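Exercise: predict the fold of this chain.
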Amino acid sequence: MNLRRRSSLLLAATLVMSDVLLLPASEIPLDARRSGYDFMSRETRAMQDDDTSNPATLWVLDGEALWNAKAGTAQKSCADCHRDLSSMKGVAARYPAFDDKRGKAVDLESRINFCRIDHQQAPPLASESREMLALSAAIARQSRGEPIAPDESKMAATIDAGR
C-alpha cells in the first residue's frame, strides 16, 4: 500500500473515532439502571452475599467503631446526631446529592467531612484514608440492596459539566 493511501486511511479512521468519542452518552432511565452486582460472576456474588467471607466486612466493622467514637472539640460522635447506624438506610444510594448550603453537588465522603467540620468541630478525614474508607463503607452498607437513585433535579449544571 502506498504512503498516500495509508495516510488517507489513517485520517479517515481518526475522523471516525473522533466522531464516535464525541457522541453524547445516552441516558439510562432510572427504571432501567442496574447495580454492578448484576454483572458480577457467581463466585463474586457469593462472596458479597456472605459477610463472613467478604473482606469489606473488616472495613465496615472499623466504620461502626468510628460511628460511635467521639471526635473533635465538640466531642460528638456520628451516633450523637444520627442515632444508630441503621438510621442511614438508603442514604448512600442517594449520592451524589446537591448541598443547598454549599451550592454544589457533593459525594458521600464530602458529606461525612462536612458533618465532621460543622457538627463535630473535627478536622476532615483525608480522601481514601483508612478512617474515611471505613466510615463510608459502614454507611454504604446500610443501603445494600437499595437502588442507586440520586435526586438529579438540582444537579443539571453538574451533570452537564460531566458530559
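Check your answer against the key: Residues 18-24 have pLDDT under 50 and may be disordered.
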